[in-house]
From TrEMBL:
It comes from Amycolatopsis umgeniensis. Residues 163-224 form the ANTAR domain. This is ANTAR domain-containing protein. Gene3D superfamilies: 3.30.450.40, Winged helix-like DNA-binding domain superfamily/Winged helix DNA-binding domain. Transmembrane segments: none annotated.
Length: 239
C-alpha cells in the first residue's frame, strides 16, 4: 500500500510532511532514542512519503549489530561496496545476479528494489533498500528525497553513538577520579589511626587488596567506613 498517495487524496500538504519527517529524525538525537527507534522512524517516513511498500537498512560501517549482518549478495551490499545507486525495475530478471536475494524478496511479494548508499561526510557506511510490490523504479525526485532522509538518519545514528561513547568515557573518568579521592582519603585515615606514614599506609592497603583479591577502591572505602579488620590490613603480607 502506498501510504503517501492516500495522503494526497486526503489533502495532506506534502511539503509540511517532509519537513515534519526531517524534524522527527533530527529530534531523535536530543531525545536520546535508541538506534532501533531512529531506523523505525526512517522506515515509517520513507514508506509514508515515497511510492514504496517497505525498506531495509544495511549499516556495517556504524557497527550496529542488528544492521551489520553480512547477508546475501544483493543491491544493498552492491550499493555499499560501490558507493553507487542500484535500481532494479523487475527483480525476476536478476536471478542470475543475486539468486538468494531474489528468491527471498520474491517469496515476500516484492518485485522491484532501489538501493542507495548511506554516507557520513565522504565515508560510505551502508545502504538503504526501498522495496515495491510493483515493477517500477523510483523517480529522480523520490530518490533524492529518500537519499536525504536516509542520510539524515545515518548522521543521527552516528551522532548518537558518539554522544553515548563520550557519556561512557565521562562516567569512567568520574569513577576513576572518585576512586582516587577515596584512596587518598583512606591513606590519611589509616596513617593517623596506625601512626604510620601515608606511603606506608598506601602500601598496606595495596598489599591487602592484592592478597584478598579486592579492588583498592573497595579497601579504601572499608578503611574510611571503619569496616575493615585493621590488624589484618596492617599486618605485613607473608606473615
Amino acid at each position: 500500500m502506498n501510504i503517501w498517495r492516500e495522503g494526497i487524496v486526503a489533502g495532506v500538504d506534502r511539503e509540511s510532511a517532509v519537513c515534519a519527517a526531517f524534524t522527527g529524525l533530527t529530534a531523535s538525537v536530543t531525545e536520546d532514542l535508541g538506534p532501533d527507534r531512529i531506523v523505525d522512524t526512517l522506515s515509517s517516513e520513507c514508506v509514508r512519503l515515497l511510492p514504496i511498500d517497505s525498506m531495509e537498512v544495511f549499516l556495517p560501517g556504524l557497527k550496529l549489530e542488528r544492521y551489520s549482518a553480512a547477508g546475501e549478495k544483493g543491491p544493498a551490499r552492491e550499493s555499499f561496496e560501490t558507493g553507487n545507486d542500484v535500481a532494479v525495475k523487475d527483480l525476476s530478471a536478476e536471478v542470475a545476479r543475486w539468486p538468494d536475494y531474489v528468491a527471498r524478496m520474491t517469496d515476500l511479494g516484492y518485485a522491484a528494489v532501489s538501493a542507495l548508499p548511506l554516507r557520513t561526510m565522504e565515508e560510505t557506511v551502508g545502504a538503504v533498500t526501498f522495496l515495491s510490490v510493483e515493477t517500477a523504479v523510483l523517480s529522480a525526485e523520490d530518490r533524492r528525497l529518500g537519499q536525504a532522509l536516509a542520510d539524515v538518519a545515518t548522521l543521527c545514528l552516528r551522532q548518537q553513538r558518539e554522544v553515548r561513547h563520550y557519556r561512557t568515557l565521562s562516567a569512567q573518568l568520574q569513577s576513576a577520579l572518585d576512586s582516587r579521592v577515596i584512596i587518598e582519603q583512606a591513606k590519611g585515615v589509616l596513617a593517623e589511626r596506625a601512626g604510620i606514614g601515608v606511603s606506608t599506609a598506601f602500601q598496606r592497603m595495596r598489599s591487602f587488596a592484592r592478597s584478598s583479591n579486592s579492588k583498592l577502591s573497595d579497601v579504601a572505602h572499608a578503611v574510611v567506613d571503619g569496616t575493615v579488620d585493621s590488624e589484618k590490613l596492617l599486618r605485613p603480607r607473608g606473615r
